[in-house]
Specification:
The longest helix is centred in the middle third of the chain and has 17 residues, at 61-77. This protein has a single domain, classed as HAD superfamily/HAD-like (Rossmann fold, 3-Layer(aba) Sandwich). Strand 6 (121-124), helix 5 (127-136) and strand 7 form a beta-alpha-beta unit. Helix 1 (31-40) runs parallel beside helix 7. The chain has helices at 31-40, 52-55, 61-77, 104-113, 127-136, 148-153, 165-179, and strands at 5-7, 14-15, 26-27, 47-50, 85-88, 121-124, 139-142. The chain has seven helices and seven strands. By secondary structure, the protein is of the alpha/beta class. The strands form three sheets. A three-stranded parallel sheet has the order 1-6-7. It has a two-stranded antiparallel sheet with strand order 2-3. Strands 4-5 form a two-stranded parallel ribbon. The radius of gyration is 16 Å and the shape is globular. Bound molecules: magnesium ion. Residues 8, 10-12, 124-126, 146 line the site of magnesium ion (MG).
């Protein structure tokens, strides 16, 4: 069983967070370096994303998946390995079974990728990410690059708040080294240091 860093997309890995088509999404500075570090620490990094604009008809799921494929390929080309997409295409208000903070997509990823959720982290910018973390027994780490005020305002009491995913990854690295007698990685290579 492996540990994961479950990554939110909008507001965590890419901007903008509300308006725009996927082709307008831009990586949050340092996001790929953060994934590289998480990979190097032994974490598998699936993306768990709600794209409610698909159900709203603003863009198609095929378009989104096409863009995401390019994003993953670009990331991989820079040494940041994303372990797949777990997507909810429904409106937030819909009564679907896959939206956050329900554990469905996280558990699906855990099954596919042999993930132990209790050794894992959820990194995201909203309360639903932090609630999902609690629901699956992982550590929730909000970032301030999106709508983190929601996570804070709703009393998510996260373990750690980072300005961005780069800070969160560094915190996870420090935490893992200090708590494990047999850490996955004691000394990151220079090329994965932030
Ligand atoms: Mg988000």
């Amino acid at each position: 069983m492996r540990a994961a860093a479950f990554l939110d997309l909008n507001g965590t890995l890419v901007l903008p967070v509300r308006a725009g088509a996927p082709s307008e999404y831009r990586p949050v500075p340092g996001a790929l370096a953060a994934i590289r570090l998480l990979n190097h620490l032994g974490f598998v990094c699936p993306v768990v994303s709600v794209q409610s604009r698909i159900e709203k008809g603003m863009f198609s799921e095929a378009d989104f998946r096409s863009w995401f494929g390019s994003f993953v390929a670009d990331a991989s080309g820079q040494g940041a390995e994303i372990a797949g997409l777990y997507l909810c295409p429904h409106r937030t208000s819909s009564d679907c079974r896959c939206g956050k903070p329900k554990p469905t997509l996280y558990h699906r990823a855990a099954g596919d990728l042999c993930i132990d959720c209790r050794r894992s982290y959820v990194i995201g910018d909203s309360a639903s990410d932090m609630d999902a973390a609690r629901n699956i027994g992982s550590v929730g780490c909000p970032v301030l690059t999106g709508w983190s005020e929601n996570a804070l305002a709703e009393g998510a009491s996260p373990d750690y708040i980072g300005h961005d995913i780069r800070e969160v990854a560094a915190w996870i690295a420090s935490r893992e080294r200090s708590r494990s007698p047999n850490p996955v990685c004691l000394i990151p290579r220079q090329d994965v240091l932030l």
